[in-house]
Amino acid sequence: MFVLWLACRPQLSSPGTASAPEASDPPVEPTMSTGATVPGCDVDEIEPNGFGDPATPLGLDDRGCGTIGEAGDTDHWTVAVDFEGWLSLQVSAASIGSPANLRLVLDGPEGDSDRGSQGVGQSPDPYLLVPAVPGSWTAALDEESGRGGVGYAYEVIASEAKEPGIWTASEVEPNNAVGDAMAVGTGDVIYGELDRLDLDFFAVEAPPGPGVDLTISAAAYGLGSPGIFELVAYGEDLETLGRADGGLDGALDPSLSLHLEGGATATIQILEQSAQSGPLYWYLLSVEGP
Q1: Quick check: do 2-161 and 169-288 share a fold?
Q2: Is the per-residue pLDDT at 44 higher than 50?
Q3: Cβ atoms < 10 Å from Cβ of 217
Q4: How far apart are CA 243 and CA 255, in angstroms?
Q5: Do residues 122 and 247 make contact, with C-beta atoms less than 8 angstroms apart?
Q6: Which of 99, 203, 266, 275 has the least CB density, counted as fewest CB within 10 Å?
Q7: How far apart, in whole angstroms, are the C-alpha atoms of residue 246 and residue 251?
Q8: Over 60: is that where the pLDDT of 88 sits?
Q9: Is CATH 3.30.360.10 the right assignment for the domain spanning 2-161?
Q10: For the chain, what is the mean pLDDT?
């Protein structure tokens, strides 16, 4: 598993145990910390590591420690990926008692085309699970409300990870128009990616006979995808049959209940609610019914 864990806890001294350094003690270089001052930390962030500064290197499965040291601060970490598979990044802040509400933005070797983020309002501790290719990946962390200070500590781990689930088939392109919709049926679980400026359509047909009740779901954000998706169902005359938004009632992955008469076909479109797209914006579309 490849996990990026950024973490930083300020070191506290017990009352009465601190002493002034002797004149012979070597000077302390705060920007080149080895992490040894933070229990359980493998790597401390190296400041400055903001925009335009070198990112702090973090090894796979190492625990990184950092602090959003001042208002508006952004910390950058870089991880060298030597595999093609799935990469997970887990950030801990609220779970370790920090007041920081962090946002995580991940850039892959191809820059903005591989960007994904979590943690803006929905998740106190962001987590990303993304399809990865070999190369240098950069993670940027900032505080959602722009706050910062000594206590705004966090931890981060990056790891090679398992696939997010089991699917019966992968999305078949082109399916970016109603007429090109990919056919799906009950029991199908489709792995798809909402590539840059992509439109994804799927068609489900009810068998002849009495009508059927179907549930169409998209699992994504809850499994680590940066996408918060929306499902829209259209009838044969392109009338809207139903809509389900991620984020409704606290559920960040949409689920749509649909009734189809025997022999009728519905076309399902999946969209990202904030119009984000790219190879990191993956989903698992499932169809349940009789």
Answers
A1: yes
A2: yes
A3: 19
A4: 9
A5: yes
A6: 275
A7: 6
A8: yes
A9: no
A10: 85
Quick one: tokens of 209?
A: 């006979």
For 96, the enclosing helix (H) or strand (E) is none
- Between CA 106 and CA 134 the distance in angstroms is 14
Q: 169-288, which class in CATH?
A: mainly beta
Tokens of 16: 């009465």
pLDDT at position 47, please?
A: 94
Q: Encoding tokens for residue 154?
A: 């966090």
Chain-centre distance of CA 283, in angstroms?
Answer: 11
Name which of 101, 113, 97, 110 is nearest 141 in CA terms.
101
- The CA-atom distances, in angstroms, between 271 and each of 35, 106, 114, 194, 251 are 42, 21, 18, 8, 16
User: Residue type for 256, please?
Assistant: L
Tokens 């952004």 — which residue?
Answer: 74
* Separation between Cα atoms, residue 158 and residue 155, nearest integer Å: 11
pLDDT tens digits for range 152-168: 999 999 999 999 999 99
Nearest of 91, 67, 76, 78 to residue 147 by alpha carbon = 67
Structure tokens at 181: 């919709």
And the tokens for 161?
A: 């990870």
**Residues 280 and 108 sit within 8 Å (Cβ to Cβ):** yes
Half-sphere exposure of 250 (CA within 13 A, CB side): 0
Domain residue extents for the chain: 2-161, 169-288
